Amino acid sequence: MAQRDATHDPARKSWVASANTPGTDFPVQNLPLGVFSTAGAAPRCGVAIGDRILDLKAAHGAGLVSNPAATADSLGPLMTEGRRASAALRTEVSALLSEGTPSRTDLLVPMAAARMHLPTTVRNFSDFMASYDHCARLGVRRDPKNPLPQAFRQLPVAYHSRASSVRVSGEAVIRPHGQWQRQDGTMHFGPTEAMDYELEMAVWIAGDNAIGEPVPMSRAPDRIFGYGLLNDWSVRDVQRWEMPPLGPFLGKSVSTSVSAWIVTAEALAPFEMPAPVQEPPALPYLDSAWNRSNGALAVRMTAAILTPRMRAEGAAPFVLTDTQFAGMYWTAATMVAHHASNGCNLLAGDLLGSGTVSGPEETARACLAEIGLTGPVSLPNGETRRWIQDGDEIVFRARAEAPGAVPIGFGECRGVLNPAIAWPA
Questions:
Q1: Given 8, 134, 338, 339, which residue is catalytic?
Q2: Which helix (H) or strand (E) element contains residue 89?
Q3: Which amino acids does the record list as binding Mg(2+) (predicted)?
Q4: 256 marked as part of a ligand binding site
């Protein structure tokens, strides 16, 4: 479990000037981890600081970072070592980058000159459904009297999704083909006509547990390496047709976009807050005093759209969703504990999706399936959208905020929808 320490000190500044700029995602209190490369060089681990990246391999070579895991070409080795290793690295990097320490600009790379990669090979990907408001809004269409799945208030519902189609922010998504039944009852196969986004939080797993060995709530927080943003691209016409027998399949496996930077659990300690009250109370295996007092995170999340016409006109992305992660009915710790409750062996580098982060407010509807319940979206330039069209770009951002703490950001999670490929002859 993360503890507040000197790395969170709101008075701390960095010798990297851009890290002290008001509104930056990456002040010295953040120090998220990612994997980057530059022209002619192999991928390596780095830390975001202002508009620069600290090259951890170079810092280790200079004797300023002690853990050899930081020199790898992915965060996998560091994730395997677990939270003690990431906390120790954070302490070293915070001291290295803080004001009063000799400047080492030779260890920095401009973000603009770097290409970002997936933080690690995604070994498994499970996606949860933890928002009461998301489930209730869409469930009313299915059964107005019982909109929530029967198990929703008893456990964090999830399904296993496709790890191989997880992509880093910035990679395009291709409109998929699929099968569904039209309103007139005829069957159709072709490019989807109902492409959607889902604004979610990514939860990255640290360490392993042996198969057959559960993870109790007392240890669940320490299995969370960190957090990022996740777009669970959703093919609604295909999803509606295939779901009743076994749940999501081709409606979800086409692509999942994740932000390049992982904000460590240690960095988020100042933003912990009490979890929402559950009724009925969770069973003991999903309950702990820590979870009740610290299980939620105060993170404001937004989703915006940038259409081709808006891009040509030089317009900024239009915000479709403005929501709060702290309101999720089930916390990340309960997701970890429930996932491993049957002895499932969670592995370092596994990815969990929080599910759509919808809140009770109209502005907090976190997907077009919810927003569209009241009609198409009207954009400032006169365009309308019911579903995502070819060339549209979806941009997620998030910011952790709490009294007395320096706000920290998550960077962007973005992806543009490209046209479907021609079906092979």
A1: 134
A2: helix 83-97
A3: 232, 252, 256
A4: yes
Confidence (pLDDT) at 293: 98
Rounded distance between C-alpha atoms, residue 15 and residue 412, angstroms: 24
pLDDT confidence of residue 425: 87
Does 279 belong to an annotated binding site?
no
The H or E element that residue 91 is part of is: helix 83-97
383 among annotated binding-site residues: no
By the 8 A CB rule, do 328 and 276 touch?
A: yes
Record the pTM.
0.97
- CA proximity to 258, closest of 349, 137, 140: 349
Query: With b meaning 16 or more CB within 10 Å and e meaning fewer, what string describes 401-422?
Result: ebeebbbbbbbbbbbbbeebee
pLDDT given at position 341: 98
Quick check: is 60 catalytic?
Answer: no
Spans in the chain with pLDDT lower than 70: none
C-alpha triplet 397, 400, 402: angle, nearest 5°: 150
Q: Is 127 annotated as a binding residue?
A: yes
Nearest to 328 by CA among 414, 232, 199, 239: 199
Domains (range + CATH), the chain: 6-117 (2.30.30.230), 125-418 (3.90.850.10)
